[in-house]
Amino acid sequence: MKQSLAHIALVVRDYDEAIAFYVDRLGFTLLQDTYQPEQDKRWVLVAPPGSEGDPGAASILLARATNEEQARFIGDQAGGRVFLFLRTDDFWRDYRRLQAAGVEFVREPKEADYGTVAVFVDLYGNRWDLVEFTKVLR
To answer: Left if phi > 0, otherwise alpha if psi is -120 to 50, otherwise beta: which for 102?
Structure first.
């Protein structure tokens, strides 16, 4: 049996502001932005640079909150913990690029036994690791 994650839903306040952050600041690719009239919502997929076309790579579904209960989780989908891990093949290149783009790092770079890592937040406050692994982790 072979399975993989296809999409990870990220609850957002507004489609366009989320697209602007992920595409313009993080450098992600907008894979799809399709209006679904029967549900009055958009199907918006973004993916990290270099992962487009990789059938094993998951993308992020930017899912607009449609009620107060969902809206409570915007920016805190993991209860204050790191929620997502952005793997890179060159930590310092991407760290400097993200800093220059105005991305806020809340934990400075450090060398760990598994690689080089720093923590940043998205436009809503969700925590992400930017990480370059020194070995393959499963």
So the answer is: left
For residue 46, give the nearest of 123, 132, 125 by alpha carbon. Answer: 123
Query: pTM of the full predicted structure?
Result: 0.93
> If DSSP codes are grouped into helix, strand and coil, which group holds residue 94?
helix
Structure-token match 């999409």, residue found: 7
| Both structure tokens of 108 | 């400075």
* DSSP SS3 for 92: helix
Mean pLDDT of 51-80: 94
Q: Is 81 helix (H, G, I), strand (E, B) or coil?
A: coil
| Amino acid found at 70 | Q
Q: Give the pLDDT confidence of 68-110 residue by residue, as tens digits.
A: 999 999 999 999 999 999 999 999 999 999 999 999 999 999 9
Q: Note whether 127 and 83 are within 8 A (CB).
A: yes
Q: Quick one: DSSP state of residue 134?
A: S
Q: For residue 32, give the amino acid letter.
A: Q
CA proximity to 127, closest of 85, 91, 83 = 83
Identify the helix (H) or strand (E) that includes residue 8: strand 7-12
